[in-house]
């Protein structure tokens, strides 16, 4: 059975697109599920190569329980983030999931994580893929 990587994004889905493209290239045998907090984000991630997509709270609640990895902006774990698109139930589903979480910092929603570097979204997406590959290597060692 293929491992599932759940990518969650909102707003325009720009980070989700970068993650989808880069994860698809680095881990071609994995299943990518893209869930947007809105239809624009979902459509963008599907165009970028996600295997399946859905939109909204309930798909996140279901998919988070079965994913091996969850990737997205740090706001997916904070209720009210992404300009209010992340509900408390969505954030709780991410937090409670046994999946490894790869969260990317951003400062557009007044969430500041100290100790991080100021990088482009593409550089952060590359770092996220690298972290997934490291976790996979450690699991298979």
Structure overview:
This protein starts with a strand and ends with a helix. The model has no long low-confidence stretch (mean pLDDT 93). β1, α1 and β2 form a beta-alpha-beta unit. Strands 3-2-1-4-5 form a 5-stranded parallel beta sheet, with helices on both faces. It is globular, with a radius of gyration of 14 Å. The longest helix is centred in the last third of the chain and has 20 residues. α1 runs parallel beside α2. The chain has 6 helices and 5 strands, in the order βαβαβαβααβα. With 141 residues, the chain is of the alpha/beta class.
Short description:
With 141 residues, the protein is of the alpha/beta class. The protein is built from six helices and five strands, in the order βαβαβαβααβα.
Offer a few descriptive terms:
141 residues, alpha/beta, 6 helices
Q: From N to C, what is the helix and strand string?
A: EHEHEHEHHEH
Instruction: Show unreliable segments.
Output: none
Helix content: 40-55%
First-to-last CA distance: 19 Å
Main sheet makeup: 5 strands, parallel
Spatial order of strands in the largest sheet: 3-2-1-4-5
Hey, roughly how much beta strand do the residues contain? 15-25%
The secondary-structure class comes to alpha/beta
β-strand number: 5
How many distinct helices?
A: 6
User: What's the shape?
Assistant: globular
Mean pLDDT: 93
Question: What Rg, in angstroms, do the CA atoms define?
Answer: 14 Å
């Amino acid at each position: 059975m293929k491992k599932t990587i759940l990518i969650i994004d909102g707003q325009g889905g720009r980070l989700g697109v970068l993650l989808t493209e880069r994860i698809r290239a680095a881990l071609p045998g994995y299943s990518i599920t893209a869930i947007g907090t809105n239809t624009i984000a979902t459509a963008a991630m599907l165009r970028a190569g996600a295997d399946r997509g859905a939109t909204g709270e309930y798909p996140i609640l279901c998919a988070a329980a079965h994913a091996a990895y969850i990737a997205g902006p740090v706001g997916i774990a904070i209720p009210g983030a992404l300009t209010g698109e992340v509900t408390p139930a969505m954030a709780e589903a991410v937090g409670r999931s046994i999946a490894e979480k790869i969260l990317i910092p951003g400062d557009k929603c007044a969430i500041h994580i100290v100790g991080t570097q100021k990088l482009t979204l593409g550089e952060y997406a590359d770092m996220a893929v690298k972290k997934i590959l490291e976790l996979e290597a450690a699991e298979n060692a």
